[in-house]
Amino acid sequence: MANVAEDLQKLYDEIGRLKPTEGEMKLLPDLERLLEVSASARDCKSTPTASTTSKRCLILAFLVACSAVLAYCLTAFFPHFTVASIHALGYGEPENPNSPCFLRGPAKMTEIFRSPVDCSVCRNVTRVDISRDMSVEQFTKNYAYTSRPLVVRGALRDWTASKVFSFDFLRHLYLDEFPGSLDVVAEHCQFFKYKTEFANLRDVLTMSKERFNQTWYVGWSNCDVSVATVLRDHYTPPTFLPAGSASSRLDWIFMGRSGNGANIHIDNVGKPSWQAQIKGTKVWTLEPPRECHFECASMEVTVYPNDIIVLDTDTWYHGTTILGDEISITIGSEYD
Ligand SMILES: O=C(O)CCC(=O)C(=O)O
Ligand SMILES: [Fe+2]
């Protein structure tokens, strides 16, 4: 900056003046400071602390973004990778398998960041137990909160749902009887389109005959009270649930045709659930949590009309496939 006076002198030589005036000389220190600041700013050195902090932030943000991309890619290329696997490798036994989150969040994120599972829940389970007569005591002792999957055959024999529920019944209920319900469902409920193009339940219930006869499968939670009241006239929660346990007020309905079903996934709902097979036949594929891959077995079980499956969907990876010509309709709920 000592050159500022010389530079100024050169400038004056060029324009024909001999030297800066006294007043201009007094302003020189200010001019020098100004030039110093602008030069430093150009070199990103103006406020060293702020600049270092922002650089650190940028590096941190970059690393976080890289980790997220890496974790996502790992789960895509190595299906047995989850953050829970790292937990399990690092700590042996998991810390807390009961996640406080009750949301069915974006599937991939739920999967990557879920808490690891204690593999003793699946170590000795090699097949899905099937029962024809389940008492409350038996269920409470062996299944209710053990994560051991169970199918109870013929459990909804007394339900009128088996005779009443159909695609047309649901279409009429939502579209004609309670026309506002589809907006309630669209705004407050969850809708799983799986492999279809449907954006919401209205799209499903208004599809053309040709589309209906092709392959499709969807699921949704019903948040409309009027519709729920009608649905519940036709079923009651399973009689074998533990005394005092409450079924969630939210019904989950899954419906679709042969050849399709839910992709294999894991949930984060915080509670076990039951699902009643009202119509059609469905194969459930169950896989152990990825961190228990080498200790536990995968299984398949087929459910027929009138069967109820009880599953801890936070512990078991699960996917479904519809068999046969009949449309599959199920209703289910979580219990505590
Ligand atoms: O019934 C299905 O196809 C899938 C159900 C499901 O994913 C669940 O109940 O968590
Ligand atoms: Fe699920």
Topology:
Blueprint: H1 3-15, H2 22-42, H3 48-77, H4 83-91, H5 107-113, E1 129-131, H6 136-142, E2 150-152, H7 161-164, H8 167-177, H9 181-188, E3 191-192, H10 201-205, H11 209-212, E4 217-222, H12 225-232, E5 251-256, E6 273-279, E7 281-287, E8 299-303, E9 308-311, E10 317-323, E11 328-334
Parallel strand pairs: 1-2
Antiparallel strand pairs: 2-9, 3-4, 4-5, 5-11, 6-9, 6-11, 7-8, 7-10
Bound molecules: 2-oxoglutaric acid and fe (ii) ion (FE2).
Description:
The protein has 336 residues and is an alpha+beta fold. It has 3 domains: 3-42; 56-113, no CATH class; 120-334, Jelly Rolls (Sandwich), CATH 2.60.120. The protein has helices at residues 3-15, 22-42, 48-77, 83-91, 107-113, 136-142, 161-164, 167-177, 181-188, 201-205, 209-212, 225-232; strands spanning 129-131, 150-152, 191-192, 217-222, 251-256, 273-279, 281-287, 299-303, 308-311, 317-323, 328-334. The strands form 2 sheets. Strands 1-2-9-6-11-5-4-3 form an 8-stranded mixed beta sheet. Strands 8-7-10 form a 3-stranded antiparallel beta sheet, with no helix packed on it. Strand 1, helix 6 (136-142) and strand 2 form a beta-alpha-beta unit. The N and C termini lie far apart (76 Å). 28% of the residues are buried. Residues 37-48 and 83-106 have low confidence and may be disordered. Bound molecules: 2-oxoglutaric acid and fe (ii) ion (FE2).
